[in-house]
Design brief:
Blueprint: H1 3-44, H2 48-69, H3 78-110, H4 113-129, H5 147-170, H6 175-197, H7 211-240, H8 246-252, H9 254-257, H10 263-270, H11 276-294, H12 307-321, H13 324-330, H14 337-357
Helix pairs in contact: 1-2, 1-3, 1-4, 1-7, 2-5, 2-14, 3-8, 5-6, 5-14, 7-8, 7-11, 7-12, 7-14, 10-12, 11-12, 13-14
C-alpha cells in the first residue's frame, strides 16, 4: 500500500469515527434532555408545552437540515457501506443503551447543564476531525444547498409541531390551532412546488413512485411511535410520577434501550438468510405486543414488572432499527444514495418530532 492509499484509508477511518461519534451524540441528545426535564422544571419552571420544546427543538432542527445535508456527501459504497452502517447502528445502540445512565450521572454530579455541554463538546470534535476529511457528493450534477426548499420545509415542520403541541390548549377547532395547521399545509405545498421546479431538487419526489422506497420511509415512523416516544416520556414519568431519582430513572430505562446495542447487529446477521422486510415486520409485531402489555401496567405504584414489556418493545424495535438504514439506500441507484439517506433521515426525525408532539 503506497503513501497515498494509506492516507486515503486513514482519512476514511477518521471520517467513519467522526460519523460514529456523531451517531453516539444523537441518542444522548434524546435521552439526556428527557432525563433532565424534571430538573430543568425545578430550576427554571415552565409549562408542559414549554418544556416539551427542550426535546422538540433538537428534533426539529436536525430533521429540517438533514434533508439538505443528505445531498452533500457520500463516503462509502458496496460492502464498505454495509459495514459502516453496521458500525454506526451499533454505536447508536450503545448511546441508546447507556445514554440514560450517563445522563443521570451527569445530572446528579454536575447538574442538568452538563447534558448540553457534553453534546457541544462531541459536536466540536466531529467538526474538527471529520468534516475537513469528508468529500463532496459524487453526483456530478449536484447543485449544493437548496435554500428556499430548506426554508419552506423547516417552517412547515415547525408550524405543524407547534399546532399539535398547542392543540389541547386552544382546542383542535380553535382559530389559532387551525391557523397553524393550515399554514403548515400551505408551506408544505410551497415546498413541493419548489422541488418540482428544480432541475436537481434536494427531495426527488419521483422516488416515491417506488413502493419499496415508500415502505422503507414508513419504518422510522413506526419506530418513532413504538419506541422513541417511550424513550423520551418514560424517564419523565419515572421521575415525576414514580418519584425516582434521575440516576434510578436512567437505570430503569435499560430494559428498553439495552436491546438496541445487541439486536440491530443480530438483525444484520439474520438478514443474510431471511428477507429484511419480513424481519422488520416481525419486529414491529413483537413491539406492538410489548406496547399492549405495557398499557396494562399500573401507574404510580412503582411496579418492577414494567421492565418485561419494555424489554419486549426494545427487542422488537431493534430488528427494523438494524436494517432500515441500509434498506434506505439499497432501493435507489447508487448516485441517489445521498439523497435517499437525506430523505430517510428526514422522515425519521420529522416522524419522531410529530410523534413526540402528539
Amino acid at each position: 500500500m503506497d503513501a497515498n492509499m494509506k492516507a486515503a484509508h486513514t482519512d476514511k477511518t477518521i471520517v467513519l469515527a467522526a460519523v460514529c461519534l456523531a451517531g453516539l451524540m444523537m441518542p444522548l441528545s434524546f435521552t439526556g434532555p428527557a432525563v433532565a426535564t424534571p430538573a430543568i422544571a425545578r430550576d427554571l419552571g415552565g409549562s408542559p408545552v414549554a418544556l416539551a420544546w427542550v426535546v422538540n427543538a433538537f428534533v426539529l432542527a436536525f430533521g429540517s437540515f438533514v434533508l439538505a445535508a443528505g445531498t452533500l456527501a457520500q463516503e462509502f459504497e458496496g460492502p464498505a457501506r454495509t459495514r459502516a452502517f453496521s458500525l454506526l447502528g451499533t454505536t447508536f445502540g450503545v448511546g441508546l443503551a447507556f445514554g440514560p445512565i450517563w445522563s443521570g450521572l451527569l445530572i446528579e454530579h454536575f447538574g442538568w447543564r452538563s447534558i448540553f455541554l457534553t453534546g457541544a463538546v462531541i459536536g466540536a470534535l466531529v467538526l474538527l476531525f471529520g468534516v475537513p476529511r469528508m468529500r463532496e457528493t459524487r453526483d456530478p450534477d449536484a447543485r449544493g444547498m437548496d435554500g428556499w426548499g430548506t426554508l419552506t420545509f423547516t417552517v412547515a415542520l415547525s408550524l405543524l409541531i407547534f399546532g399539535i403541541v398547542t392543540g389541547p390548549q386552544y382546542g383542535w377547532t380553535g382559530t389559532a390551532t387551525l391557523a397553524l395547521l393550515g399554514a403548515a399545509l400551505a408551506m408544505l405545498a410551497a415546498f413541493v412546488a419548489i422541488e418540482l421546479k428544480r432541475a436537481r431538487p434536494m427531495l426527488d419526489l419521483s422516488l416515491f413512485r417506488y413502493p419499496r422506497f415508500v415502505g422503507v420511509q414508513l419504518l422510522p415512523l413506526a419506530t418513532a411511535v413504538c419506541y422513541v416516544v417511550l424513550l423520551i416520556l418514560l424517564p419523565i414519568g419515572f421521575i415525576g410520577v414514580e418519584g425516582y431519582s434521575e440516576l434510578k430513572a436512567g437505570m430503569m430505562m435499560i430494559p428498553l434501550s439495552l436491546p438496541m446495542a445487541i439486536v440491530p447487529f443480530l438483525a444484520g446477521l439474520l438478514a443474510r438468510r431471511y428477507p429484511a422486510g419480513a424481519l422488520s415486520a416481525g419486529g414491529l409485531v413483537i413491539a406492538a405486543a410489548g406496547l399492549a402489555w405495557l398499557a396494562t401496567m399500573p401507574v404510580g405504584q412503582q411496579s418492577m414488572a414494567i421492565i418485561w414489556p419494555m424489554l419486549l418493545i426494545g427487542i422488537g424495535t431493534g430488528l427494523p432499527w438494524g436494517l432500515m438504514d441500509d434498506l434506505s439506500v439499497s432501493v435507489v441507484p447508487k448516485e441517489r444514495a445521498g439523497m435517499a439517506t437525506g430523505i430517510f433521515s428526514t422522515m425519521r426525525l420529522a416522524g419522531e418530532a410529530v410523534a413526540l408532539a402528539g
